[in-house]
């Protein structure tokens, strides 16, 4: 047993049970973005949170424990993703990556936008021309320091 | 001469002149995000916009014309980016990619968030624990249709 | 159990039963192109469609349910396909890719031909010099917009 | 001097002159698809055709001669294309590749759709929901034979 | 069950039974080159041929049926083969590939040597300095046509 | 100056002069296969042979000398070739590689077909269904020995 | 002109002048580790620091200005480094990477050791069995937070 | 059974038992860095040490024996690591690799810092701005010698 | 069952039995280098030799037979090896490869050192500064011939 | 100017002058193996040695100085070498790599054969069946130590 087998069990149980990620998140008491990534094997739950998740998906005590172990992260099977939805995000970096870089450095100087001290929120944006996906990302700016 | 040489000339001129991308954008009359990516060789300008950019950076008539040709896009030299700032965005996809996928499908069904009918806005978020970079992305949801 | 195991079960059942994809499509009531790609794990069926497919191939209730979950797409085991039939399509892109790009931009301006709002139709073209495969693809043009 | 330098000269001349590929094709007297790919370094012209192209783009006698030499084909800089328009075609293979394979074998048996004895035609399809790109491909079916 | 498991069963049965490929070919009534590649999962047999092969290797009815399904081709586990015997063929292409190209175009014009309408024959060449492997390949020349 | 620049000069001179490889070979007094590969930077000429080649293509004394230096071999720009003609040979290895291996080991035992003590001959095969390319390869069998 | 050409000019000037990095650092007034990485194109100098560096290496005003532009980082030509000294660091990650991960998570929980808020110091360690290289790295621990 | 299955059993047992690596190390009597890497399949234990580890994790005699066999090292599943914590170390090499090289050669001449005669120590550094991870590495300098 | 499963059984049996490769070689009556590589799945044994190996490691009749089948060679899981001991050999080629090439061509002319008609011998070299590994390789020189 | 341009100048000068590496080595007073690798850009010369080399190849004072700078090592253009002579060494590692590993660990325990404290000697071995290349490698064994 490892984290991957627990992730796969959660995904399979979700299909059987027909639950929504946002309902899982509501029971855990955190955002749907963080909880989904935790259930998909990318974040570390506390023992209490793991118990909630275990109950929802019918995990054993041992499986729940795996949810509290920091996983080896990276959810994609290939360096360049093949799934069209996920590829579009990769394409944004390919097309806009140097723009992100230019504008962040112009505003903040040398450093990065943290992917750790980071939050994101995903929601529907109603639009008469077809609804839109809106993603708001917020990450702490971390400056390179001289020493 | 090709688009790449024009892009490099723009970048070098910007260093010499000490101009800001946001000032360039103001003169063009569009967002700083779109204008920067156009100057970095990723978008196509109209002849009028190209003239404005050419005047700012001292481009020739011929060079301005290249700005109106749709470029071969992709601004990164390697499939997995090496630059720490740009890599963080790649990491977000690696860690959150399947989460994006799960939540968008839960909300919208099968389809993608467009990277073409797409806008993004990048700004500073003041925070006592250190300022944050805030990026808002909005892309039309495009459903797969049956036929 | 995951989508891949369901796909493999469908393929194996098809060999046992000696059914044709076009017959499966007729029962589902959609084109053979869309139905085949769905059975091969690339599209999402409605529960009703999934029941039809399940009955044809002898799938369990649980397996049918997997057909209604949006799959992680990408049907090829390697970035450059090794199968000669599939490679020929890759070769068309290698040889004609920049031509597609030049002609579509000439006709429509900057943007893409959608692979989502997309249909294709494949048929036999009788020809005295040897029959031909005819593929018609139709995808909505999506323009990049300025903002 | 080699074919690549001639291709680059043609592309640069086209930007200066503001000519359309379809006009070039009309002067050569062949389809816009074939002529564009030839000008982009993928096909071989006869000496007469090369003269026409040379006159349009102001090529020297020596450069024209290069157009009559069979080129080393492959127009893309990377195995997985980064340009969004071209990537969409790669994605179609990734998503529909096994479907192409299944349906062609179902109709024709073991073999391939030729990418050599091959024609394609690209045109605008008017549509009230937004115009569409329509591509018709026709390739001879080549059966594997036993021996 | 899939074609790969049938291929592996054939290979294992061949080791147990100590049969030669040329004997298998004689029973099928075709060349040893074609029959071996079919048994190794690269070609498609008719039902009659599959029965012969099934009897030789002790395959079930279901397994025999898999031999009649066109396989996903490509017999090598890596893009650059590691096995010394197979690598030598890859090396021939690396060293002689541009020579093949130059001489075939000189003789035939633009086009390819078909790998589908293709036969090959492999035999021992007695030589006092050490016997030699002689391989004769014959593939139809397919010209690119203008349209 | 290095071997590559000499190779490129030879190729460019051949285009200007309109010479055939088989005529070059006749003047050198060896097969067209070997001479072409030497001119394309894959084989090493003697000084006398290099003088002949130099005279044909108008090379300087220094350039001729480079033809006598053993080159770093490998004539293809990518691990998997993109040119359709050259790719077909790669495909033959992908489809028939394990067949080559099985049949050579069946006939000769463990070892390889040499790519060094190797000759090949390429010719036109007239055929009413379309002429064919015929390639005969002959390579010494080299057995692995125990020690 | 771009940052790379400035880096190359600095490296070439250093060879001509026979200066030591530690002396350059002393004049800039920062650690030798930070200053060397800045001169090698990885960090961003202030205009005052850039002037000092420009004077040492004989850079023009324009070149000095490039030192103040945040560079596209990544100093290695290949994903897996070929240089033996640099490879050893890559090997440490290959052998000890999961150990770093296990021990940091055991001590700190889920998060990372920052490579931005990061310092390192490299010095000689005298040892009778042969002197040793001692590297001290210090990076802020950044915890993943729930939201 | 092989070393990998033993490593996985150790990791799973550690999750069940809730033990800390530093406690395992204390029982073995060596540093936590070395012992963790040994348990993760990168180092070779003596039979006595293996017995201690076996007792802690409930390994069989046979499994303990595997701990005494030198393993095939390399703990990462991909050439460029995807896990954010481990990637940061890769990034340090990407950004600082040429700096490491420049400074070590300046101090020691041509040679390397050994990754074999190597020790490392990882500890918490208390800091009011947030605690830091401190890693001290010490490796023997090995000079290239002339011969 | 295939050769790989037999190799794994031999390796596992060797750990259980605590045998040395040199003892296995002595029983087979050949060098430890050749016998080890055969047991590791790289060489082909005669039936008599296979029986000896089978008896040592407790293989079945069927497993022994697999040792007499020429294997698909290549013992490394990745193109660039990750194991430090094996990587050092790869590094020697990276650093000394062009030197090997220059010196062998200087001495022998164009051709290669055979890796088939090849022997190697590995032994300990006592040295007061630390013992050394001594490897002697001997391979027949195979000249490229003109034809 | 950088080390690569100096290496290329040395190689070009060697072709012009028709000198042998062994004569260069004799003048430098070291082995032909070390001197050749230094001239090919892989080792670092002292100023006195650099002067000798500079005089032989007609290098300037500045170019000689580059020979005394430790180079970024790695002499091969691709991860898997394409040149047949160099590939054979790569093949030896692929076929014999795990054998090297097994036998060195059997004799010495866990550790590596150094590629730094390393010498090699290459010579002709006369043999009536065709002369052989003999390479003797000697590298210090470096044990992993526990701490």
Automatic annotation (TrEMBL), chains A, B, C, D, E, F, G, H, I, J:
| InterPro entries to which the protein is assigned, alphabetical | Cyanase (IPR008076), Cyanate_lyase_C (IPR003712), Cyanate_lyase_C_sf (IPR036581), CYNS_N (IPR048564), Lambda_DNA-bd_dom_sf (IPR010982)
Q: Does the keyword Lyase apply?
A: yes
Q: Where does the record place the catalytic residues?
A: 88, 91, 114
Q: Identify which top EC class this enzyme belongs to.
A: lyase
Which catalysed reactions does the entry list for this protein?
cyanate + hydrogencarbonate + 3 H(+) = NH4(+) + 2 CO2
Query: Among its keywords, does the record have Membrane?
Result: no
**Which keywords does UniProt give here?**
Lyase
The protein's GO terms of the molecular function aspect are: cyanate hydratase activity; DNA binding
Which residues does the UniProt record annotate as the domain Cyanate lyase C-terminal? Answer: 75-147
Matching Pfam families = Cyanate_lyase (PF02560), CYNS_N (PF21291)
Q: What is its EC number?
A: 4.2.1.104
**Entry's family note:** Belongs to the cyanase family.
PANTHER family per the UniProt record, alphabetical: CYANATE HYDRATASE
Q: Which HAMAP family match?
A: Cyanate_hydrat
The entry's function note states: Catalyzes the reaction of cyanate with bicarbonate to produce ammonia and carbon dioxide.
What is the official name of this protein in its record? Cyanate hydratase
What is the organism field in this record?
A: Paraburkholderia lacunae
């Amino acid at each position: 047993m490892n984290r991957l087998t627990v992730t796969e069990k959660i995904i399979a149980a979700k299909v059987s049970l027909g639950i929504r990620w946002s309902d899982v998140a509501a029971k855990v008491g955190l955002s749907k973005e963080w909880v989904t990534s935790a259930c998909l094997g990318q974040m570390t739950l506390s023992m209490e949170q793991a118990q909630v998740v275990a109950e929802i998906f019918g995990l054993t005590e041992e499986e729940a424990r795996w949810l509290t172990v920091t996983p080896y992260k990276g959810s994609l099977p290939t360096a360049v993703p093949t799934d069209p939805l996920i590829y579009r995000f990769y394409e944004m970096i390919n097309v806009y990556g140097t723009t992100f870089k230019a504008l962040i450095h112009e505003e903040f100087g040398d450093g990065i936008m943290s992917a750790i001290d980071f939050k994101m929120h995903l929601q529907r944006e109603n639009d008469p021309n077809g609804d839109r996906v809106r993603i708001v990302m917020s990450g702490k700016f971390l400056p390179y320091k001289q020493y």
